[in-house]
Design goal:
By secondary structure, the protein is an alpha/beta fold. It has a single domain, classed as Rossmann fold (3-Layer(aba) Sandwich). It contains 6 helices and 11 strands. A 9-stranded mixed β-sheet has the order 9-8-7-10-6-1-4-5-11, sandwiched between helices. The protein has a two-stranded antiparallel sheet with strand order 2-3. A hairpin with a 2-residue loop joins strand 8 (161-168) and strand 9. Helix 2 packs across helix 5 (197-203). The chain starts with a strand and ends with a helix. Heterodimer of an alpha and a beta subunit. Its main location: mitochondrion. It is found in: Mitochondrion matrix.
């Protein structure tokens, strides 16, 4: 490998996966008051993979830089990532604004260029909006090869070639490309570690820089308007049948046969 790995890991502060979201009274989004937030699970997997690469490839990784776009509260997930083994961090302070994937990708692209990153690992999607856009848009902006929904990653230190396995409709596909590269992570990739108390304390001393979107030359004004948000319709109750003939008759009644 001609140069050391400089890994960037974008992470998002999202409603905790164990919380059942509720639509707010204004019907403009989900209720966030009094709700538990944590690092987006797919991003947590990305952090773990970056740290695992650093541990496995002794001396091959120069730094792991973790980035989040959000309010000051997003410092929580940055500190958590630092406690798990990331080296430096940046908060893109967008306040309480809801930032669209393309805007996030533009800001990440700028930071990647400034940080001279050559590998970006991020979750395939956030569990709040489920967009699954940012990684692909970032690859397009940087003109880097990408592999989405990775379930296995292997880096050849001598050639700088990255081989990734990911799930497709018919099974698994293995692809490879040379650095620089973007990888989005799936649940199969790994199991994130817990941050230990000593590492949480050490993380408080690691660098956390704050920048504004304007510092990156990016306008965060939204292009999309949310008209209304509503709960899905309740699922109708099921029925029991006593025979195959009765089942067929019921299916015919509902136009399923």
């Amino acid at each position: 490998m001609s140069s050391k790995l400089r890994i960037m890991v974008p992470v998002k502060r999202a409603i905790d996966f164990a919380v059942k979201p509720r639509v707010n009274s204004a019907k403009t989004g989900v209720e966030t008051a009094g709700v538990k937030f944590s690092i987006n699970p797919f991003d947590d997997i990305a952090v773990e993979e970056a740290v695992k690469i650093k541990e496995a490839k002794k001396g091959a990784v120069e730094s792991i830089h973790v980035v989040s776009a959000g309010s000051s509260k997003a410092q929580e997930v940055l500190r958590q990532s630092l406690a798990k083994g990331c080296d430096t961090s940046t908060l893109i302070d967008v306040g309480d604004a809801s930032v669209e994937p393309l805007t996030v990708a533009k800001m990440l692209a700028k930071l990647a260029e400034e940080d001279k990153s050559n590998l970006i690992i991020l979750g395939k999607q956030a569990i709040d909006d489920d967009s699954n856009h940012t990684g692909q848009m970032l690859a397009g902006l940087l003109n880097w090869p990408q592999v989405t929904a990775a379930s296995k990653v292997d880096i050849n230190e001598s050639t700088g070639e990255v081989t990734v396995e990911h799930e497709v409709d018919g099974g698994f596909e293995t692809v490879s490309a040379s650095l620089p590269m973007i990888i989005t992570t799936d649940l199969r990739l790994n199991t994130p570690r817990y941050a230990t108390l000593p590492n949480i304390m050490k993380a408080k001393k690691k660098p956390l820089k704050t920048v504004k979107p304007a510092d990156l030359g990016v306008d965060i004004a939204g292009r999309l308007e949310t008209v209304s948000v509503s709960e899905p319709p309740p699922r109708p109750a099921g029925i029991k049948v006593n025979s195959v003939d009765e089942l067929i008759a019921k299916l015919k009644e509902r136009g399923a046969l």
